[in-house]
Amino acid sequence: MLWPDMKFLLGIVLFTQTAFGAGLKWEGTTKRIVARAEDRVVKTEFTYRNAGKAPVRIESVRGVCVCCTSAYATKKKLAPGESGTVVVRVDFEKKPLPLVKVVSVKTDDGETVALIVEVHPK
Questions:
Q1: Which of 3, 10, 34, 76 lies 20 to 30 Å (CA to CA) from residue 52?
Q2: Cβ neighbours around 96 below 10 Å, total
Q3: Domain range summary for the chain, segments of one domain joined by +
């Protein structure tokens, strides 16, 4: 079950995902992770590929909530056909589960993609 303010945030996220970055194609933008409370931290990866005809540069990768989310791109400049990953780490120690965290990826073509990590209790 999602909280009312999370429904608003997810609405914004879904709106931004309609663009999907002109050159970048993602192998999914949502990850659902089942974790034990004693795990305290989960890590996941989102894979992308430059499907366009021009180079694409990732300008920023940011967690909406920096208190418990960190993220980075393994490759920031991609020639056509090249791939990379965004690695996301979510620290959920002292946080109630389920937990939804959003990471924003902005490219030099002005597009923004939202990556969603859902952490659910085991």
A1: 10
A2: 8
A3: 4-121
Rg (alpha carbons) of the chain, rounded to whole number: 15
pLDDT in tens, 16-56: 443 444 589 999 999 999 998 788 899 999 999 999 999 99
- Biggest alpha carbon–alpha carbon distance for the chain: 46
pTM beyond 0.85: the answer is no
Which one of 2.60.40.10, 2.120.10.80, 3.40.30.10, 1.10.510.10 gives the CATH number of domain 4-121? 2.60.40.10
Question: CA-to-CA distance for 59 and 61, rounded, in angstroms?
Answer: 7
Angle subtended at Cα 69 by Cα 120 and Cα 79, rounded to the nearest 5 degrees: 110
